[in-house]
Amino acid sequence: MKQNIVKTRLKNGQPVLGVLSNSSDPTVAELCGFSGLDFYMIDGEHSPVTTAQVQDIVRACELTGITPLARVRSNDQKLILQFLDAGVMGIMMPAISTVADAEALVQAVKYPPLGTRGFGPVRANDYLLGTMNQGEAVAFANEQILILPQLEDKEAIDNLDDLLTVEGIDGFVIGPRDLAMSMGYYDGPGHDEVKRTIAGVVEKIRKAGLIAGTTAATGDQARALIDRGVLFCLNSFAGLLKSAAGDFMKGRAA
């Protein structure tokens, strides 16, 4: 069983940067690991990635020292279980808008007595062939797995004060594009009202002693967010590739 390096860094107030990827190819995860990124977020929502492919992607992450996380497509206990059993070290769940949503997520991720996750001798606990017995594995997993609901609509923002009190949540990741559309801005999150809303949400999350996360398109954006207290910054794999390719192609323009 592996220590969750990303969760450890976050608990120590250190920022983490990573990528959200819709690729089903473990090589992509392997390359991201060798690049030095902190985490690789498997996108199980906006992608064709299947639970059967997750295991090999996680293996590639473990090989290169990058922490495997996943965005799961729905708040379904059995689906979440398959991602966790494959060795994913954290779940980012989209469209969490109510306390009931958040509590259901915690129940799915945590083993008893903190939740209702089912236990099996799977690769996440070394098939019970490692150094930990079942009780030790249960306690270790409950401590190590990262739980990050996504705030993506006006209802979630309206319910934020109550969401911040849900036991077992490590933090919240703001989805700026969906939030902007929920607020009536269908062309993106660049509007002042959206920016003010996100800034207010970040401040509330921080005051509650929880981790605030959101997207950053560039290193400069990530630095600015970190200076404001955002510790969990993610870009898309496509966004990183576009940025690097654009920078490289400046050579031709010269």
Automatic annotation (TrEMBL):
InterPro entries per UniProt: Aldolase/citrate-lyase_domain, HpcH-HpaI_aldolase, Pyrv/PenolPyrv_kinase-like_dom, Pyrv_kinase-like_dom_sf
Presence of the UniProt keyword Metal-binding in the record: yes
Superkingdom of the organism of origin: Bacteria
UniProt KW keywords: Lyase, Metal-binding
Pfam families: HpcH_HpaI
GO MF terms held by the record: aldehyde-lyase activity; metal ion binding
The HpcH/HpaI aldolase/citrate lyase domain, residue ranges: 19-237
GO cellular component: cytoplasm
Gene3D superfamilies listed in its UniProt record: Phosphoenolpyruvate-binding domains (3.20.20.60)
PANTHER family for the chain: 2-KETO-3-DEOXY-L-RHAMNONATE ALDOLASE, PHOSPHOENOLPYRUVATE CARBOXYLASE FAMILY PROTEIN
Family note: Belongs to the HpcH/HpaI aldolase family.
Protein name as it appears in the record: HpcH/HpaI aldolase
Protein source organism: Spirosoma linguale (strain ATCC 33905 / DSM 74 / LMG 10896 / Claus 1)
